[in-house]
Structures are given as C-alpha cells and as structure tokens.
Amino acid sequence: MGKGRIKLGMLGGGKGAFIGIAHRIAAYMGERYELVGGAFDSDYDKALEFASDLQLDASRVYPDTETLIKKENLLPESERIEVVSIVTPNFLHFDMAKKLLEGGFHVVCEKPMTMTSAEAEILADLVKSSGKQLCLTHTYTGYPMVRQMKTMIAAGEVGTIQRVDVQYYQGWINPLIHDEKLRKSIWRLDPKRAGISSCMGDIGVHGFNLVEYTTGIEITAVLSDLNTLYKDNTLDVDGTVLLRLAGGAKGVLRSSQIATGEENNIMIMVYGDKGALKWQQENPNELTLLKENHPLQILKPGHSYNAQFTKDSTKMPPGHPEGIFDAMGNLYRGMAKAVRGEKLENGEFPTVQDGVRGMHFIEKVVKSNKDGNVWITI
C-alpha cells in the first residue's frame, strides 16, 4: 500500500478539452492525487505546451500510451504514475485500458468503457488477474442525493420496486444534424469512432446505469425503438426502451440528443409499493420522497437525517450547492480508497463490471431495434 498523494497520469484531456478539466478538478478536490504527467494530445508539441501551462515536468510528458508505460515503469516505484485517466474518444478506450492494466497501472476511464461487450469482458478478466482497479466515470452515481436514494431503497423505505422511469434528454445535435455536411463531421455519429450507437451509447447508458445503481436490481430484458432521423445517418440520436427488471418490476428509459432546447435533463423515478423517490440532475441537491397520505418531502445534502454514505459524499454545509465536479470528485475519492486498500462503501465508484453491463445494454438495445422492436434478454 502506497503513502502520500497518488501520482496521476492522463491520456487525452489536453488544451481546450472540457472533460480533461473536469477530471483534473475532480482529482484535485479530495487532495488525494497529484497530476505528474501523461500523453495529453496526439500532437506531441501541443502536449508539451499544455504541460508547460500546468507547470508539469516535460520529462513526464509522452507522445503515446506505450511510451508512458515503458518510461514510467523504469522509474522507482515510489516515483512512478499509479493511476492513469483515459479521457479520449470512445474508440481508443479499450486498447489504452488493456495496455495500462497489463503494464501495472490502475485505470480511470470515461464511458463507454469499450466498443463491444467482448472487449469489456477482456478488461474485466484483466482487472481480476492483475489485481488493479478500474473506475468507470458514470459520474451521476457520485451525487450525494443519488447515493441517498440508493441507501433508502436498499433500506426498504419505498418497499418492493414496482416501476422505474428514467430519462436523459439533450438537444445539442439538433442544430447540426439537419445539415448533411455538418452531421457527417460529428464524431459521435461516426461508427468507427463512436461505436454502434450515438444516443444510447453516450447518454442512454447513463440512465441504464442509474437504474441498476439506485435500485440494486439488474435489468434483465429490453425492447427498443430508436431513431436515426436521416437515412444517411447510421447511428441513433433518439430512442425509447422498455425495461424488465429482475423480480418483476418494469420501466421505461427515454433518451435523446435531438430534444430541442434541452441541456442535460436527467431524471430518475423509482416507485415502490410503500413510496417513491425522484431525482433530477439539473436540480441535484433535492431528492423527492413520495408516500401515500403523507405530504411530499424534499431531502437535501448536508443534513444529519441523511445516511452516512451520503454525508461522506457531501463536501459543503447545507444550502451550498454541489455539482458535477463534486460528483466526479466522489468517484476519484472512492478510487483513491481502493488503490490505498481502504474500506469501501457499496457503490463508491462504478467498476469494470458496470462497464460490462453497459456494453451489453448498448448492444442489446441496438439489436432489439434492428430485429423489429422485440424483447432481447441482457
């Protein structure tokens, strides 16, 4: 078990990359990590310029993943990078994660974890055989009130789950997709870089993950109806998925990148026979509790009535809003505890198995739609 701050490396996330900024802020937040180097850009000169802006040692800036692994492993164990964050486009994730795990590094990876479920299974086997950790950044699981929702459901406060309803609506592709030239320039609509799905692969999978995370119940089958909008666009930009859960509950997942005017409208509602819980990402500090013949209750972070897991995931006093960086920071905190061999709560960070589940979901949703909107077992 190491001591002191965890030495962090990064693949991608260079100058102007929002997701890189998000990961760096999240890592710094808990004062558990120190960014020391990485391969920040496919253009090595740009990577060096970026590293200089961050006042990083130029000798720890690498042109590619292979060089990082080779050079870092030549350093004394106390000095080398321990955890590497992958913040690149989808098609690069698997190869990078595989090489890093084989090279002896822990991995934080953006989702989707891989391009196929077969690749995801390979990474799962590697995590097991290497003894290394892989954290998949399903960031919304890091919100305190999502963790409170998970804890309350596990404690039976809403009773037996009867129905789930989850949505993730964005509108960012809408201004671009109606122009043929523009839509062909979007990497998320390119199967070679995005995989077999755009909408479900990018954001629908977050809804899938939230259902399984909060309820603790696996989704067993899906029936999907997807929309590509144009015949020359092969990937979905909108869709609805019916869900069947283990134990008999049913539900629906709705996801769209052409929901005009929407920003990041995530909502999850879980209905049991004793009550219901509702959470919205655009108002993340409120968890709504509904019960028969009781007034509606709003639970908020920072209060003593919350579970210990929720309190541990809350950084500010009541009334001080926490957001997406804080949520991602909780994942990095959980990963740090795992790397250092500390005791973990159930659900501190999404693991490689969440990545495997997500890839199976994406593939089965696409197959259900392709086969004529039929039920497919996950």
Jot down its keywords.
13 helices, 5-stranded parallel sheet, 9-stranded mixed sheet, alpha/beta, single chain, globular, Rossmann fold, 2 domains, 378 residues, Gfo/Idh/MocA_oxidoreduct, Dihydrodipicolinate Reductase, domain 2
Helices and strands in order:
Elements: E1 6-12, H1 18-29, E2 33-39, H2 44-53, H3 65-72, E3 83-87, H4 93-102, E4 106-109, H5 117-130, E5 134-136, H6 144-154, E6 161-169, H7 174-177, H8 180-183, H9 191-194, H10 199-215, E7 219-227, E8 238-245, E9 250-256, E10 265-272, E11 276-280, E12 287-290, E13 297-299, H11 308-312, H12 324-339, H13 352-370, E14 376-377
Parallel strand pairs: 1-2, 1-3, 3-4, 4-5, 6-9
Antiparallel strand pairs: 6-10, 7-8, 7-14, 8-9, 10-11, 11-12, 12-13
Protein name: Gfo/Idh/MocA family oxidoreductase
InterPro entries: Gfo/Idh/MocA-like_OxRdtase_N (IPR000683), Gfo/Idh/MocA_oxidoreduct (IPR051317), GFO_IDH_MocA-like_dom (IPR055170), NAD(P)-bd_dom_sf (IPR036291)
Pfam families: GFO_IDH_MocA (PF01408), GFO_IDH_MocA_C3 (PF22725)
The first-level CATH class of the largest domain is given as Alpha Beta
Give the full name of the CATH homologous superfamily of the largest domain: Dihydrodipicolinate Reductase, domain 2
Number of strand segments: 14
Largest sheet, strands/sense/barrel: 9 strands, mixed
Low-confidence stretches: none
CATH architecture of the largest domain: 2-Layer Sandwich
Q: Tally the helices.
A: 13
Order of helices and strands: EHEHHEHEHEHEHHHHEEEEEEEHHHE
As a percent range, the share of strand residues is: 15-25%
The Cα radius of gyration reads: 21 Å
The third-level CATH topology of the largest domain is Dihydrodipicolinate Reductase, domain 2
Shape: globular
Mean pLDDT: 96
Percent helix range? 25-40%
Total tally of structural domains: 2
Structural class: alpha/beta
| Termini Cα gap | 37 Å
Strand order in space, largest sheet: 13-12-11-10-6-9-8-7-14
InterPro entries: Gfo/Idh/MocA-like_OxRdtase_N, Gfo/Idh/MocA_oxidoreduct, GFO_IDH_MocA-like_dom, NAD(P)-bd_dom_sf
Protein name: Gfo/Idh/MocA family oxidoreductase
